């Protein structure tokens, strides 16, 4: 990046960071840096799947989007029945994160392997009750989040680099001591006030809505009553999972698949380790383990021998227990030996970089065969359907290319022709909302020329081809179609205006010293964080000037989406301010300024980037 372009970028960020708009929306544009956020799986699978977007030439694939969606559902962040609505937001988030990651890469942010190792062993998520790193906790947490150790390290490196960027922006933001003290004083301020929410019952009569009112409002808001460009679609889907449901799977296939699972199932392993080097030679270490094997053959317990012979002092007191292990964490020789054993078996002598070992599997974490029968059948059927699925997909590709319809294609492929109702580009439910589908439907060759679409890869197990059956352009809906909606809008607006006029009238009377009968709700000692009143009322109460003396009441009104209210401010008292409060406020201000800077950077990167949704 040249000096001039960098200066231009920084000026753009400063301009946005100083705007009220940026301050208002900052809470919604903070860059996510959680170790277990939805971005955690992207690096594992970035190489496969159709492209759904390109950011400065770098692709985002359909596979990434699908994995993000499933990750959010699996972690409980989003209910499964909302996954269709989630996809568009997921793609937007992936674009934003890719922009930040590209900026980080260009800026030369670096994290060494040693830094990652140190960070991993100090993360509280992986520490036991005594504050020590636990391999079992490490394994469980990664498994629940969908990681292998290697993939976790890759994602952690990205997260730390993003944190470096955030910390650099935070370090450039500061506040004066006097400013922090003033803000802390305001933060702790308490106010006692009264309020009254005006309702339609306070009006002398309900607002009258005439035909002229409806017509006038409709003409002024025609853009609010647009029907977008829409199409009716015919489409076919080749679904491997649907095919698998009809597959016959024999008992032998289930048993073989169970054996495969057993070979890779997580195991609880104990070991006896004997080191070699300065104190003993490798041959002496081997002889020492041979003595252990003889003792085992004589009936001695593995746990007792671990305490007597093992040089791994961190596990010898616990019988050599290493906890439950999965593939990808220990070395190849160690894992090959461990995963070749059944429960209760002891390995031959295994050599690793840190010594010689005897391994014993004390448990295999695999449910009984009958508990897994259904899932084994699904796996086996899915595997058995692979060839037929590929054959059908190839037939779908070949025949849909030249066909003038989709019914013949559906018949040939052996699937049902499906038909949609009228849908627009922003359809938000069902298979048509998945990435790439509506882009294909509104492609010029499909929409205008009448061709079948190319084959759309929905995910690993589904392929789709669609065709436009009917289309209709965007148009303003006739008044008769939206009359009820217009009437409700006009009535709401007239009611709001009447309540505001009533509030102005009563406010004028209160300020003139009159005492109209009002059912006030009293709030005592409210703070900005806890007012026990509707938010728009509390905000209005804290915007009013403080009374000049104890006998004065300051009147105002509050207007918000929740309604219209009268507000009477009776008392303002300053909260206690101490050094801890001032420090906390100062940090908060600096953090918010840093977040505003990040928001400005994000917006700048979006404006400058070449983003293409496919």
Strand content: 15-25%
Radius of gyration, Cα only, in angstroms?
34 Å
Instruction: Describe the main β-sheet briefly.
Output: 5 strands, antiparallel
Number of distinct helices: 23
Shape: flat
Q: How many beta-strand runs?
A: 18
Structural class estimated from helices and strands: alpha+beta
Distance between the termini: 28 Å
Mean pLDDT: 80
Write the layout of secondary structure elements.
Blueprint: H1 3-17, H2 20-25, E1 51-55, E2 58-61, H3 62-74, H4 83-106, H5 113-122, H6 135-145, H7 149-171, H8 177-188, E3 190-198, H9 211-220, E4 226-227, E5 230-239, H10 240-244, H11 251-264, E6 267-274, H12 282-297, H13 302-309, H14 313-316, E7 321-325, H15 332-338, E8 350-352, E9 355-364, H16 369-384, H17 386-402, H18 407-413, E10 418-419, E11 423-424, H19 437-441, H20 444-447, E12 456-459, E13 462-472, E14 475-476, H21 479-511, E15 521-526, H22 535-543, E16 554-560, E17 563-573, H23 579-608, E18 611-613
Antiparallel strand pairs: 1-2, 1-18, 3-15, 3-17, 4-14, 5-10, 5-11, 5-13, 6-7, 6-9, 8-9, 12-13, 16-17
Helix pairs in contact: 1-23, 3-4, 7-23, 8-23, 9-21, 11-16, 17-18
Summarize the structure.
A hairpin with a 2-residue loop joins β12 (456-459) and β13 (462-472). With 614 residues, the protein is an alpha+beta fold.
Provide tags for this entry:
alpha+beta, disordered N terminus
Polypeptide structure, described:
This protein has 614 residues and is of the alpha+beta class. Helix content is 49%, strand content 17%. The protein has 23 helices and 18 strands. Strands 5, 10, 11, 12 and 13 form a five-stranded antiparallel β-sheet that branches. The chain has a four-stranded antiparallel β-sheet with strand order 15-3-17-16. Helix 7 (149-171) crosses helix 23 (579-608) and helix 9 (211-220) packs across helix 21 (479-511). The longest helix has 33 residues, at 479-511.
